[in-house]
Amino acid sequence: FNGGWQTSLRSPVLGDMVTLFTFCAEVEDTLKRIQGINGVIGTIVVNAEGIPIKTTLDNSTTVQYAGLLHQLTMKARSTVRDIDPQNDLTFLRIRSKKHEIMVSTDKEYLLIVIQNPAE
């Protein structure tokens, strides 16, 4: 009985760990692919609290973009839901004279991509 219990307890954990490592590898590959696109200045992954967890930019730029874009994205998400409670924000795109900022939203993370629109 004890051996069977240990096996059933370990299998899901190992499976979850393998899934997590596969997910992390896929995320890394995707970020590298995005960063390699001509004109991309940087990428930032932000958690639900607005804390940057992965970036290709310097610290001060990352903190500035992550904080401000997290606030803007949460406000935009709230606005979309106020208009239609059955709807949700999935993507936000901002274009200024200097940059284009794209934010892809998820339940737990934001992916921010900053690019030079002229390139």
UniProtKB/TrEMBL annotation:
Q: Which residues form the Roadblock/LAMTOR2 domain?
A: 27-115
Q: Does the keyword Lipid metabolism apply?
A: no
Transit peptide in keyword set: no
Q: Which Gene3D superfamilies match?
A: Dynein light chain 2a, cytoplasmic
Q: Where are the transmembrane segments?
A: none
Question: Where in or outside the cell is it found?
Answer: Cytoplasm, Cytoskeleton
Among InterPro entries, the record links this protein to: Roadblock/LAMTOR2_dom (IPR004942)
> What keywords are annotated for this sequence in UniProt?
Cytoplasm, Cytoskeleton, Microtubule, Motor protein, Transport
Gene Ontology CC, one term? microtubule
Cited function: Acts as one of several non-catalytic accessory components of the cytoplasmic dynein 1 complex that are thought to be involved in linking dynein to cargos and to adapter proteins that regulate dynein function. Cytoplasmic dynein 1 acts as a motor for the intracellular retrograde motility of vesicles and organelles along microtubules.
Family of this protein: Belongs to the GAMAD family.
What protein name does the entry list? Answer: Dynein light chain roadblock-type 2
Its source organism is: Sinocyclocheilus rhinocerous
Q: What is the lineage of its organism?
A: Eukaryota, Metazoa, Chordata, Craniata, Vertebrata
Please state the gene responsible for encoding this protein. Answer: dynlrb2
